[in-house]
Every structure is written in C-alpha cells, then in structure tokens.
Amino acid sequence: MTNTAPAPAASPRVVLLDIDGTLVTYDLILPASAAAAVREARASGHRVYLCTGRSRAEIYPHLWDLGVDGLIGGNGSYIEDAGQVVQHQVMAPEVVAEAVGWLDAEDLGYYLECNSGLYGSPQLLERAAAAIGRPGAEGERFVADAFPDLLPLADDLPDDVNKISFALRPGLDVDALAVRFAGRAGVDTWSATGAGPEFGEFGQLGVHKGAAIITLAAHLGVPVGEMIGVGDARSDLEMIAVCGIGVAMGNAPDDVKAAADLVTDRVEEDGLARAFRRLGLIVST
C-alpha cells in the first residue's frame, strides 16, 4: 500500500529506521528484502541510522552487521555516530529508585533498559508472556528469546538507565501513575505485538526521537529537511514530523499514517524495501 511518493533522492541522504515493526517484524524476523535494502542504500552512499526505543544493549550483532552508521536508542536518550557517543542522557537515580519501588510493590514484571545491559525482575518472563497474550512456557520462551542477554536485577541499581518498561495487567491505572510521576518522568504505553499496548514505560521528560534527530543532524552538519524517517508507532510521530520525508509502514496505526508523507506496505510484505525503491535510495532490491 503506497500513497504518492516524494521525489526520489537525487543526492546521498540520511535515513532513520525504527526497528520493531519497521526493520524487523513483531516476531523479530528480519526480512531478507529489508536487510538487502539497507546494505544497497549504504553501498549507494546513503547513511542509515537505527532510531529505536531499544537501548544499545538490545542492538544485537545481526543488526550491526547490516552496516548501519549509528544509532539513536532509548527513544532518543542515546545517540551514536560511527562509534562515537554524541549524547547519552539517563534517568535520575532517585526517579529510578522510586519507579522500581512502585513496580515491586505492584508485583509487576519489568526491566531496566540500559546501555550496559537489560536488567529484568524475577517475574518478567511470566508477566510479559501473559501481557502479550501468550501465557505459559511457550510464551515465556518467546520473551526469553527476545531478550537473549537479559541480566538479573541486583540490589544496586544501574546508573545508566535510559528508560524502564513493565508488563501491563488489566485494571492498572496508567493515568494515575502519570500523575504521580508528573514533572519527573514521562509515563506511556507501547506494543510488542502491534496489536495494542501490552507494556508501560517510564521515560525521560523531553526525550524523544525527534529531538535526538535534530541533535544528530547538527552533529553531522546535515539539514533535518534532507533526512528520511521510517517508523510504525506513536513513538515515531516526532521522527516523522521533523524529517523532511516521513514514511509510515503499512502496519502503522491510522494517526501515524496520516502524519507521513509516504505510506508503504507492511513490514512482512517487503514494505521497507519498497519504500526505499520509491524514494530512490535503491534500484535493485
């Protein structure tokens, strides 16, 4: 599914790619067409950066092996270009401690998203499997496979927390939680399946993909208006808004599609490669 495409790229561009639901499917499969498209775009002189809610510890080798130029991680809290750390903003320790205290009191499964690793609570696999509608051993194995390097949470909390995610349960009042942490942390929800919110999130105020892209553009000396952003979720709206060309995947919700300059096909239907072709980033994939 496509709408009228912007003019093809006449010169090298900087492309920002969300990961889940954009580069990989919600079953964590990297389509061969997407991998080939990224590699061809890079070979043609375009720069490609991952722009994701994942922290650096969740950027596994098969993603770096695509040859990407760098990373915007933690929904904008971390920026890396060609191995150089451009920015890393972390949550205040006292906010992390209060959030963890609340999560423990509510007996929720959660994990701290850090560049040094992902640190999970003892209940995380069980609670996360239930939240995504796959309770039981099979669902827990799926979650464990999604977090292959998950570390146990220790009493001494890490000092490089980008954000905190937790499995939602029926009846949990996220709005009341947002009021409790107002002025200290943002509280939002996100989906691991694309079907609806299954997780809550503590994030940093004023931190989002759009702000990080502006910082990266200044670092690179590239006008934001010449950048291309591709995503599929509400967390990608700021990216789509600031980039000169915003692309929504066919699996994106309607409000994300409405904000985009181009709507491509679903991630599992070669949507990324088709968008790259329509934008003139590649010719053969």
Describe the overall structure.
The two termini are 17 Å apart. Helix 1 (32-43) packs parallel to helix 10 (271-278) and helix 4 (124-131) packs across helix 5 (137-146). The protein has 10 helices and 14 strands. It is an alpha/beta fold. A hairpin with an 8-residue loop joins strand 10 and strand 11 (199-203). The radius of gyration is 18 Å and the shape is globular. Strands 5-4-3-2-1-12-13-14 form an 8-stranded mixed β-sheet. The chain folds into 2 domains: 14-89 and 207-278, HAD superfamily/HAD-like (Rossmann fold, 3-Layer(aba) Sandwich); 93-203, Hypothetical Protein, Haloacid Dehalogenase-like Hydrolase, Chain: A, domain 2.
CATH superfamily of the largest domain: HAD superfamily/HAD-like
Strand order of the largest sheet: 5-4-3-2-1-12-13-14
Distance between the termini: 17 Å
Largest sheet, in brief, is: 8 strands, mixed
Radius of gyration: 18 Å
Shape: globular
Q: Return the CATH class of the largest domain.
A: Alpha Beta
Helix and strand arrangement:
Elements: E1 14-17, H1 32-43, E2 47-51, H2 61-64, E3 70-73, E4 78-81, E5 84-88, H3 93-105, E6 110-114, E7 118-120, H4 124-131, H5 137-146, E8 151-152, E9 161-167, H6 174-180, E10 186-190, E11 199-203, H7 209-220, E12 227-231, H8 237-242, E13 245-248, H9 254-259, E14 262-263, H10 271-278
Parallel strand pairs: 1-2, 1-12, 2-3, 7-8, 12-13, 13-14
Antiparallel strand pairs: 3-4, 4-5, 6-7, 6-9, 9-11, 10-11
